[in-house]
Specification:
With about 375 residues, this protein is α/β, with parallel strands linked by helices. About 45% of the residues lie in helices and about 20% in strands. Helix 1 packs across helix 4, helix 3 runs parallel beside helix 4 and helix 3 runs parallel beside helix 15. Bound molecules: nicotinamide-adenine-dinucleotide (NAD). Nicotinamide-adenine-dinucleotide binds next to helix 7, helix 8, helix 9 and helix 14.
C-alpha cells in the first residue's frame, strides 16, 4: 500500500516534538516493556491533532485494542488519522459525530477516555447494556465533567483529570494562553501590543489568556460573573466591566467560559466596529455564529479561518476559526503543556487497567500527578535540578 504523505508529515512532526520534550517516548518505552493494556479494549475521543497522535501511538505500544474517534471535525488532522490507521488503530472521523461514539462503543470498551464526556454519555444514554463491563473512564475537560455532574448519578467510575493540580495550572493556563495569541497573530497578522483585549471568563484558561495578552503588551479587561474570580481579576490589576461595556470598547474578545451562547447577536450589534471574536473554550457555541450569520448582510472570507460579517444596521465583526477553540484548530503554541496532561491521561489509563472503579467521579490520584510531573522534569532534563 502506498504510504499517505499526510501520515508521513504527521509522523515527522511528532518526531520533532519528541526531540525536544521526550515525555511520550519515555512513556512509550515503559508501556512497550510492561504491556499494561494487553487484552483490553480502550475507546478514546479526542481532538485528533499531532499531539493526541503522539499519545495514542505510544499508548498502543502497551498492547490492547485502541479505538479512537474525533471529538470535533474542525480540529481533526487527517494526517494524524492516516498515521494512526497505519499503526493498526481504528479511527472513526466521518459522518454524524454521534455515530463515531456509537461505533466506538460497538467495540465493547473496558476503558474510556473522553474530552467532553461524549463516549461516556452515549454509553449511559444509549448502551446501558455495556456499562457493567466498563472498568472506568477518564475525563479531561471542564465541559465533560459538567455534563457528567448534570446526570442524576454517574453509573461508571470516572477519574476527573481536569480538576487535578496539574492540568489547570499548566495546560489550561500556560498552554492555552501562549498558543492562542500565536494563533491570533499568525492568522490575522495583528501585533497584540497596544490592542484592547476582553477576556470573557476568568478560570484557569481565561487567566492564562489574559496574562499572555498582557505580557504581549495588550491592554486587558476581564468579564467574570463569579464574585471570587472577579475579585481575583481585580487584584491581578485588570478592569472588570460587564460584557456589553467590554464589547463596546475592546478590539479583540476571547471567550473562555465553556458555556453556550455567551456572546449573542444582540451583544454583537452593540459591539465596537471591527471587533475580532475568538473562542478558547472547548466547544464551538460560546459565540452565536449561526445568529451572526443570519443577521449579516455581508459575509467575507478574509483568509483561512478568518471571516468578516457585516451586520445589518450594525458593526462588522471578524470571527476566527468559526468559533471553534482557536489554538486547537490551528495546533498553535508549545506542545509541552498538552503533552504533560496527556502523560497524566496515559498514566491514569495504565492505573485503571488493573482496576474496576466504583460508580461516580473521583479526583485523579495525587501519586499519578506527582509521577507525571516527575517524568516531565526528566523530559526537560531537570530531574536532578
Ligand atoms: N482551548 C483549549 O486548548 C482548552 C484547554 C483547556 C480547557 N479548555 C476549555 O476552556 C473552557 C474554560 O476552561 P477553565 O478551566 O478556565 O474553566 P472554568 O469553568 O474553571 O472557568 C470558566 C469561567 O467562565 C466563567 N463564566 C461562565 N459563564 C460566563 C459568562 N456568561 N460570561 C463571563 N464569564 C463566564 C465562569 O464563572 C468561570 O469562572 C472550558 O470549556 C474548557 O473545557 C480549552
Amino acid at each position: 500500500m502506498a504510504s499517505d504523505p499526510r501520515a508521513t508529515r504527521a509522523a515527522a512532526e511528532i518526531s520533532r516534538i519528541n526531540a525536544f520534550f521526550p515525555i511520550m517516548t519515555i512513556l512509550g518505552n515503559r508501556w512497550a516493556a510492561s504491556r499494561p493494556f494487553q487484552g483490553k479494549t480502550i475507546a478514546i475521543s479526542a481532538h485528533l491533532t499531532t499531539l493526541t497522535g503522539a499519545l495514542i501511538r505510544e499508548l498502543s505500544l502497551g498492547g490492547g485494542n485502541w479505538v479512537v474517534c474525533s471529538s470535533n471535525h474542525a480540529t481533526t488532522d487527517h494526517g494524524v488519522v492516516a498515521m494512526l490507521r497505519n499503526n493498526g488503530i481504528t479511527v472513526y472521523t466521518l459522518g454524524n459525530q454521534n455515530d463515531a461514539y456509537r461505533q466506538a462503543l460497538d467495540h465493547k470498551p473496558d476503558l474510556i477516555a473522553d474530552v467532553g464526556a461524549d463516549i461516556m454519555s452515549t454509553l449511559i444514554n444509549e448502551r446501558p447494556d455495556l456499562i457493567e463491563s466498563v472498568q472506568g473512564g477518564v475525563e479531561v475537560t471542564r465541559t465533560g465533567i459538567s455534563k457528567l455532574r448534570a446526570l442524576n448519578s454517574i453509573p461508571i467510575g470516572v477519574v476527573n483529570i481536569n480538576d487535578g493540580k496539574l492540568k489547570p495550572a499548566i495546560e489550561n493556563r500556560h498552554g492555552v494562553g501562549e498558543g492562542l495569541w500565536h494563533a491570533v497573530q499568525s492568522l490575522t497578522g495583528m501585533h497584540i501590543s497596544g490592542r484592547r483585549v476582553g477576556v470573557i471568563g476568568y478560570g484557569p484558561v481565561g487567566r492564562g489568556v489574559a496574562a499572555y495578552a498582557r505580557a504581549n503588551g495588550a491592554s486587558v479587561e476581564v468579564v467574570e460573573p463569579n464574585p471570587i474570580r472577579r475579585l481575583k481579576a481585580h487584584y491581578d490589576a485588570y478592569p472588570t466591566p460587564n460584557l456589553p461595556d467590554c464589547l463596546e470598547r475592546v478590539g479583540i474578545a476571547v471567550t473562555c467560559t465553556g458555556k453556550q451562547g455567551v456572546i449573542d447577536t444582540d451583544l454583537v450589534r452593540q459591539a465596537r466596529n471591527g471587533l475580532v471574536l475568538v473562542n478558547a473554550g472547548h466547544g464551538n457555541d460560546e459565540v452565536d455564529i449561526t445568529g451572526i450569520k443570519a443577521a449579516s448582510s455581508g459575509i467575507d472570507q478574509v483568509a483561512d479561518h478568518v471571516v468578516r460579517y457585516t451586520l445589518e444596521d450594525g458593526p462588522t465583526v471578524v470571527v476566527l476559526a468559526d468559533g471553534n477553540p482557536l489554538n486547537i484548530v490551528t495546533n498553535a503554541g508549545s506542545p509541552e503543556p498538552v503533552l504533560l496532561h496527556f502523560a497524566l491521561l496515559g498514566l491514569t489509563l495504565e492505573w485503571l487497567a488493573e482496576k474496576k472503579l466504583k460508580p461516580g467521579e473521583i479526583s485523579v490520584p495525587v501519586e499519578l500527578e506527582d509521577e507525571a510531573a516527575g517524568i516531565a522534569l526528566t523530559a526537560l532534563g531537570m530531574a536532578h535540578g
